[in-house]
Design a protein that fits this description.
Length: 67
């Protein structure tokens, strides 16, 4: 089972240049259906999110994701 950190990109200006940071909003879990082996993604949000774009990253060693 793979899991990913779910983030929202946040663009801002710093010292006259545009930068993007990624704010964590949840986790994505990749599972296999028992009968068919089909891959299913389960998305768990940390809190209600009002966003138009979500970006998933593989977790780093410092990130602890619980199901």
């Amino acid at each position: 089972m793979s899991n990913y950190i779910l983030t929202v990109p946040v663009t801002y200006k710093s010292n006259g240049s545009e930068k993007t940071s990624y704010r964590r909003v949840g986790a994505v879990f990749e599972n296999q259906k028992r009968g068919t082996g089909e891959t299913v993604l389960s998305i768990k949000l940390d809190f209600p999110v009002g966003a138009t774009e979500l970006v998933a990253f593989l977790p780093s060693q410092n990130d602890e994701v619980t199901d």
